[in-house]
Amino acid sequence: MLQKELYLKTSGFLRAKEDYEKSKAVIVGVPMDFTVSFRPGTRMGPRKIREVSYGLEDYSPYLDESLNNKNYFDAGDLDLPFGNVEKSLKIIEKSAENILEDNKIPVFLGGEHLISFPLIKKVAEKYPELAVLHFDAHADLRDEFFGEKFSHATVLRRACEHLKDKRLYQFGIRSGIKEEFEYIKQHGFLSFAEVKEGFMNKFDEFKNYPLYITLDIDVFDPSYAPGTGTPEPGGCTSKDFFDLIPYFKKLNIVGFDIVEVSPINDLSERTSLLAAKILREVLLCIC
Amino acid sequence: MLQKELYLKTSGFLRAKEDYEKSKAVIVGVPMDFTVSFRPGTRMGPRKIREVSYGLEDYSPYLDESLNNKNYFDAGDLDLPFGNVEKSLKIIEKSAENILEDNKIPVFLGGEHLISFPLIKKVAEKYPELAVLHFDAHADLRDEFFGEKFSHATVLRRACEHLKDKRLYQFGIRSGIKEEFEYIKQHGFLSFAEVKEGFMNKFDEFKNYPLYITLDIDVFDPSYAPGTGTPEPGGCTSKDFFDLIPYFKKLNIVGFDIVEVSPINDLSERTSLLAAKILREVLLCIC
Amino acid sequence: MLQKELYLKTSGFLRAKEDYEKSKAVIVGVPMDFTVSFRPGTRMGPRKIREVSYGLEDYSPYLDESLNNKNYFDAGDLDLPFGNVEKSLKIIEKSAENILEDNKIPVFLGGEHLISFPLIKKVAEKYPELAVLHFDAHADLRDEFFGEKFSHATVLRRACEHLKDKRLYQFGIRSGIKEEFEYIKQHGFLSFAEVKEGFMNKFDEFKNYPLYITLDIDVFDPSYAPGTGTPEPGGCTSKDFFDLIPYFKKLNIVGFDIVEVSPINDLSERTSLLAAKILREVLLCIC
Amino acid sequence: MLQKELYLKTSGFLRAKEDYEKSKAVIVGVPMDFTVSFRPGTRMGPRKIREVSYGLEDYSPYLDESLNNKNYFDAGDLDLPFGNVEKSLKIIEKSAENILEDNKIPVFLGGEHLISFPLIKKVAEKYPELAVLHFDAHADLRDEFFGEKFSHATVLRRACEHLKDKRLYQFGIRSGIKEEFEYIKQHGFLSFAEVKEGFMNKFDEFKNYPLYITLDIDVFDPSYAPGTGTPEPGGCTSKDFFDLIPYFKKLNIVGFDIVEVSPINDLSERTSLLAAKILREVLLCIC
Amino acid sequence: MLQKELYLKTSGFLRAKEDYEKSKAVIVGVPMDFTVSFRPGTRMGPRKIREVSYGLEDYSPYLDESLNNKNYFDAGDLDLPFGNVEKSLKIIEKSAENILEDNKIPVFLGGEHLISFPLIKKVAEKYPELAVLHFDAHADLRDEFFGEKFSHATVLRRACEHLKDKRLYQFGIRSGIKEEFEYIKQHGFLSFAEVKEGFMNKFDEFKNYPLYITLDIDVFDPSYAPGTGTPEPGGCTSKDFFDLIPYFKKLNIVGFDIVEVSPINDLSERTSLLAAKILREVLLCIC
Amino acid sequence: MLQKELYLKTSGFLRAKEDYEKSKAVIVGVPMDFTVSFRPGTRMGPRKIREVSYGLEDYSPYLDESLNNKNYFDAGDLDLPFGNVEKSLKIIEKSAENILEDNKIPVFLGGEHLISFPLIKKVAEKYPELAVLHFDAHADLRDEFFGEKFSHATVLRRACEHLKDKRLYQFGIRSGIKEEFEYIKQHGFLSFAEVKEGFMNKFDEFKNYPLYITLDIDVFDPSYAPGTGTPEPGGCTSKDFFDLIPYFKKLNIVGFDIVEVSPINDLSERTSLLAAKILREVLLCIC
User: Fold this and answer.
1) By the CB < 8 Å criterion, does B2 face chain D?
2) Who contacts D275 (Cβ-Cβ below 8 Å, separation ≥6)?
3) Cα(E226)–Cα(E237) distance, rounded to whole angstroms?
4) Any idea which positions bind Mn(2+) (chains A, B, C, D, E, F) (predicted)?
5) What are the residue boundaries of the structural domains of chain D, listed by start?
6) pTM of the model
7) pLDDT digits over F203-249, tens only?
């Protein structure tokens, strides 16, 4: 059951229904950016994504479906103790646990990438065959960062430790330290610099698993997503990604997050709009 | 005595001539954005487009021609009664009428998309065989919007009612409500998500009509044109468009507008620059 | 009774209670800026004021009271037909009527200044002895503006026509056309350039009336409130205004609005914060 | 035929007349910022000041007069060879010479402060009894700057060499190097940190001279004028300055400039608006 | 001795000497903002303050002295483990300890206000008679914040526990929760809303103690310091503060910090410039 | 030998070594933008490129090498006399001379494009077989600009005069005046609108020469590099360029510059990041 005291009230994504019971997907905002090294500011991400969603239609020409007829619930933002990483991760975990127990699909909005760790951990407990699709510019596979085990730069390394056969598929990776690229080779999982090619290449392999998708908005080139903490030139275009949407529809998505949207660095709000439009498509795929 | 040669004229697009009589094209700014739903601000568009035009050369390598030798006139901005949609549309219509009576080609700078309605109406009266090329992210084909018949979201629907055989060609459309996409199918006119493919595909068909071209700057991906009211991720690149310029040269363009440039949302001014560069090319095509 | 269908859901101001019945004050956002002549953008005002209110404490050291213990209700934003001034004013009027019938105090967030007209009209119907305190840089007393009777530049002129003995007190006025200053003299009502002096000067006179307070944020110098449509240098400081708060506590406030907050022109968000802090104090005065 | 009354002229300060002959004051923009050391950008100043002037009324409540009835001419911006200081100063000088020969009053908009040198030089030639009122945060009295004799940091030192009895009055000065403050003492001219006090203090002394007024916008505190190249905290308020306006009316102003407005550093445009409003008042004083 | 491995290289403040041995004051940047609740971004503060210092003269007209002749050392920024509050506080403490052991005066640049805790603790150990002058908009006297004992909102409460007789003097306080204002009354220490009055009032009392001065930039009104995390309208002006500088010269300052400068929220850079100018004056007072 | 007095101290690029002797490449910042015609501001480029370099990893997945192990030295910014073009060019020349005499490779960060002239001149003196690869949107081949021989718009024309057989290869050129395109044809050197195609096309020809590479950041489309003085729509993507990096590795690069990065026009900092990432790759190619 949803523990109301965990959440702060916000406006809802697009025209989210107020009926938790009937909803298949539950949106949760996670305003956390304590471990970020370069530019903080992602804690304003979830509110901004909701705000700009009012500029979108609810109909998707990519899927020829309208969100109007779908049931999804927006629970608001988690109420986190600022500066306390450990307690914050526990609250996120608790929130995910509630949603999974109610047999609903968690859809989380970051905040920094570290928030994906407790989510993947909880989803993997429920779905032992889980694979993770990871869209990102950075490998996020360090073993530690500034001496810390839990950080936005180590999050997929930690998540891997909870995945059967280290079922991780990475798309868009174009930055990291040598250690991370060696880790990738050693453990034989897959990391592609090109988003579209990589995805289509392995589609037949991962389509059979229950899937958790984590999307760091910096997978896009900074021209498409300037509002993020560690923009990395040389990324994919928005069209490259939208071309994949019909394939998303065929997947068994059991968890999803979009992270690292930092509104302050993007006066044009197009980063948040891009996140909001992707969220619309994903909700149409899972509801 | 004042030596005129010491001074730059502080306005006018590029180095517009002051000779109305000899000019073939007449530029008019329309600072109107009253019916906009998401982000107002396009009323500053016409001034900004002129201002940044000083950063452009007058020579086009795409057409190997220089605007220097061409005659076009910049009439300035229309003086509109703010908040009064009906009267404003009448003033726009009057302005277009004057220009058409003098056998000149109207080139209007928005402002919001609704300004295209009185223009297309007047041009269609003069050229009964008129077809419209519509570059946009949004179909703008609703029958009404918030109960209003005349709005930026209904403008092409209204315009269609004045076009023989509903001769509308849409390029770049990637957003709308279900009703609009159904209207497209019912009436058998053409709407393409891809700009370049769509344009080349139907070139032989529309090239024989007198043409009105209306270009909503949001046809471009928000990375290319962040300064607009309702940016829609997933659009075309600036190169996609400039590749079409040599084909524009072969068309019989009898009216043109660029709309929805909103300078406030683009500190880099590249949206206005893109509009100004397109305007240079179009003036070279029609003068 | 509150007609729910008039409103869009938003996050609430500070930690507004969800109990309409018990609330004495009702907050309503009015995202309207169609008649604005210089810089539009105030339609984003109400949402931003609520958003930044999370950076404020609920305790006021000026009044030694906490909003925590007070009952006020945030109804959300009115759902307006963009571009249609007439219908929009009717919806605002309807909303005010509902609130007044329920014997609650309307507290409206603009939006442009024109929204004050239907509010003052409705409040004056209920309280025939009503006087209006008007904080503004501009007199807003034109008879018409660009040929329009209803505009942000004529709003107080129109409102005066509904006030017994033209009971209007203006503070901070430092801009207008000659006609407006002559109107002031002819009708013998009071207009002060200095906010604090003017207010204290006439306090004993107006304190006995039921009062509607309308505050255009541009009464403050643009250094204190840069985020507004027609900033006018030479205004008062924030401290000048907060010094008046203890006197507000002694007044019989029966209606209130803050208008012309335009977030896009203020990256620092201090204009919205100033509005939010004033709103906190006013809510403490009336609840 | 084109109906001229439909259009607004897109440039010119406020509604400047097009009649050079009848005009007493001539406005000239000088887009030069080559010698600036900290933040360039003032070359966009003159255009922006004109642009925002459309947000001002032409009536001044400070002087109870309207610019509507006055004759002044806006010549546009000087066409300068970028990067060539020497030639640029000659062009400025030429422009001033023309205006003075026609017995008109030069009113120049910077650009950087160095532009005042050729102006003061030419005005002093015509009026040998000339005194200069200098509003600024910086003394600008270095003998050289980075080895250069002509720079924004040496401009008043150079100007002094053309003034009888070194008739320089400085107001608002709160920054400089030791050498400059010693130069002030040695030559016995007057420099005040406080604008209002200093001005009133010496009013009876300077009011009898023909006066050139040079106003560096950074005389205001950066909160009032953030859009400038070398903002210096601790300056005067806009009100402090407007209180002096009635006294300006009594002076014999024979030349005027406002310099160092840098629009790029001020998204709110209030620096340009402040400059435009001061310009309105000064034009009312001299026309 | 300075442990070099603790620091990252940066450009130095103004023209800081490279001679640690001879320097009396040691500048250290602390890029930490993990516990901030509203708007993060202060971690970029120290670098920006140094960057804009190049726009300042080294001569102070307030004190008639030049920083040129003074010895102070800029050690660079501390290299902190992002997201780990506990370890970060230890590193700050270590850095302060080194500097104090070498009989130098620590001058720290934040970062968030929590960094003052380890500094005050260490300075109080060395100077048992220490009093703290606290310039701030917020009391920062909560006992805990979101369940945390160590936070920017509790920092002075924690610091008090290390001060003999709770020798805390607060100036500019205009925000807090009821509990904090009651704590102030109970413990009989002094908190003033007005900066200048409060300071002058108690000057004779605190001037005899060794003093630690902690200045949260939000003590200034947001118009003077928009670039900060929790701006609070109604604060003091920059002039109010600079008027105190000659009195600072008479104090026995044994430690100093400026905190909460957040460059991202201030495009004009005036907040950083204000901090840099204050730092110049304080260095002149202690060197 | 490096003349220390020429340079101002800055933070270093990425983690530049402090060992000049062992370094093969020497980075120098050139904060000059005096001859720029449209938007100045590039003088802040070098500092910003260094600042954002902290957001990059030192490992390159494109070359599978880490900058960690390489020796390069960052000398800081040249201390230039603002406004004096001639002296500034001499200082740049002197700096290049020193570096070349020490048999190191000059790597300069602009500043405006004119800085490339003294660099190419000096490098061509040392390597008489030198060819220049020129990445830019503009041909920069005018003979004069506003009457000046030395300007950002004439720089490659001047440079050509020092190159044997006018060995100039231009990539990305999409703007210029007719004269420039005719000069290209007359002198038979090569200019391509497409970056990637052009480069690959002529690779076998130029790979045998010692090469100077000059990269004007506006070669990229303004969506990828909005922070520049004269953005020109229709340019290449960042990916187009990074695809060439492995080919760079095979070249004999003897001099390099990146110019025209103007941080003020790019709040997202992605232009500086793109420059920094290219610099990382080039350093890996030459060290």
Assistant:
1) yes
2) D45, D49, D109, D217, D258, D261
3) 12
4) 113, 136, 138, 140, 216, 218
5) 4-286
6) 0.95
7) 999 999 999 999 999 999 999 999 999 999 999 999 999 999 999 99
